[in-house]
Amino acid sequence: MKDDPLENNLYLARICHLSGMPEETIKYIEELIKLKNGCISEEERNLLFSSLKSLINTRRDSWRTVNALESKETKNQSSLLPRVSELKQCLATEIKQYVNKGIELIDNILLKATNNDELKVMYAKIKGDYMRYIFDITPKDKEEEINIFREKADENYKIGLNLCQNLSNLNTTKIGLILNYTVFLYEVIKDYKNAYIIANNAYQTTLKCLKDDNYDLTLLKDLNKLMNLLKENIGKWSETVVQENIDKLSNELSPINNNESPSP
Fold it and tell me: Among 202, 158, 159, which Cα is nearest to 179's?
């Protein structure tokens, strides 16, 4: 192998990624980020964020399992409850560590090294996602922290949405941001109506653009995946929105009905 630190670190990052070693992959990409002053390639970005995603999602899945077990042990007044709670806290700490690493790299180096709007949208989306992950694992009794993470997630998603206005409606980064933002609206903000409207508008707009033959076929696979996720969410959410409108109408009519005089 040539004595080139750029080539060497990228090669080792590829090997670690293929070997299922995300932490080691991140280590080599961090070296590349320092050597290249944040101007990393698409492949290097993918290696970094897919490795962080793997580490975070594995622990998020574990946290959900342990959280469910903690609820069960609480009901059973189990003597093992303190250990289960400790394990959940350890997982939460690890999730925060990886999230913070990603945010620090974005804010301190990667964002400063680019003027590309699409990359800025991607970074805003990632930061919004990360804040949503922290929101998910924050104890429900810590209301102030919950509000902070919810507001930070909303802020980053909206920064991305403002930046992506000039991107093509077939741009997968843009559609991915809209997809995740609508999930945030639905699951966190509980704004079912707007989640449905924004997702449906994006889906219909993209569908219309796909009728034009002038798009990159190499993006079709990723585009179809995102479109299918949007369609699935729209189908599920439409029932909630319809029921919400029915409930609202019932509430509006109930005072009228209550004030009606009984039939003679």
Answer: 202
